[in-house]
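batch_manifest entry 22 of 60
target: 1,5-anhydro-D-fructose reductase
source organism: Pseudodesulfovibrio hydrargyri
requested by: lab member K.T.
priority: normal
notes from requester: please return C-alpha cells only, no post-processing; we will run our own comparison against the previous entry in this batch. if the run fails, retry once and flag.
--- input ---
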Amino acid sequence: MSKIKVGFIGLNPDSHWASTAHIPALKSLADDFEVVGVANSTPESGKRSAEALGLKHAFDTPMDLVASDGIDLVVVTVKVPYHFELVSAALEAGKNVHCEWPLGNGLEEARKLSALAKEKGVVATVGTQMRAAVEVEYLGKLIADGYVGEVLSSTIVADAGGWGTETVADLAYLNDKATGATMLTIPFGHTLAGVRDVLGEFKDIAGRMVLRRDKVKVTDTGETLTATSEDQIMVNGVFESGAAFSAHYRGGMSRGTNFLWEINGTEGDIQVRAGFGHGQMAQLSLFGANGEETEMHPLAVPAELYEGRPEEVIPRNVGGIYALVAGDIRNGTRNAPSFADAVRLHELLDAIERTSEKVAGR
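--- output ---
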C-alpha cells in the first residue's frame, strides 16, 4: 500500500511546534505517511527546511504545493490569521487537509471552511489532539463503564502558562485578541474538545472573560506590549446528560493548582491532574475513588494502550490524530476530528464570548 504523501505549509526545523510535534508524530507512523514537501513564507525558508529535514521538495509558494500531484495531504501549521486563505486554497485544489486548531479566526471562517470541505468531499481534519490522548481515551472508558455511576458534575481549574505577566517575541501575538490565538481558543478550546469526548455534548454554555494584565513584558526585547486577550475565563454550562459543568482558566502560572479536572458521580469521583492547563500537550494523570473507598488513588492506564506510540506526550497525542487521519484517507471513514467537529467547538467558544460581552454590557 502506497504511503500518504504529506506537504507542510509552515514547517521550520527551529520552529516551536511543527518540527517538534508533527514530524516526530509522522515518523512514528512511517508505514502510513511520508513527508515529501514544504512551502514557507519565502522560497529561501522552504529550501532551508527541506534541506534540514531531508525532504524531496521545497515549493516556492503554498499555491505551488497545493497544486502538486505529488501531495496527498496538505498540513497547515501557520498562525491562525492565515488558516482561512491557505486551507481554502488546498480545498479548492481538491486536497485532503489537516489544519491546526483553531480552524479559523472565529466562527464564520470555520463555517465557510467546513462547508467548502463538504462540497469538495475530501478528508478535512483539525488537530484537537487532547481527544487522542491515551489518558483521555481511558478516562472515557472508565466513565462509560460506570466507574463514577451517573455523572453529576464536572469542574476544571487550570493555569494556561502563557497570558501572564511576561512573554517572548515569538509568542507575543497570543496576547492580541484579533489574531484568534487566545487563551480561550488554544488551551481552553483544546481541553473543551477532550471534555466533550468524555462527557458528551453541551446543552448550553455561557461565560465571563476578564482582562487583568493589560501590560505584558516581552523578555527577549525588553519592550512592554498592551494585551487585549483576556487572561481570566470563567465558564458554566449543562451537558445534554443534565450534568453540570464549570471551569476557570487563569493566565500565567500559580503557586497552587495548575490543572485539575474533576468528575463527580453518584458512585465515585475521578480527578485528572497535570502540570499546566494545555490538556493537548500536558502529561495527564488519573486518580479516582468509588464505592466504599474514601481516598483518591492512582488509576493506572493499561500499558498496552501506549504500545506503538511515541514516548513523549506531544508527538504521542498528535500521532493519535494522524493515525485516525490515515484511516479516514485509506478507508473512506470519518473518525478523525473533522471540520464539522471544529465548527461545533467554535460555536461553543463563540457562545462563551457573546455571553461574556452581554454581561459586560458590550
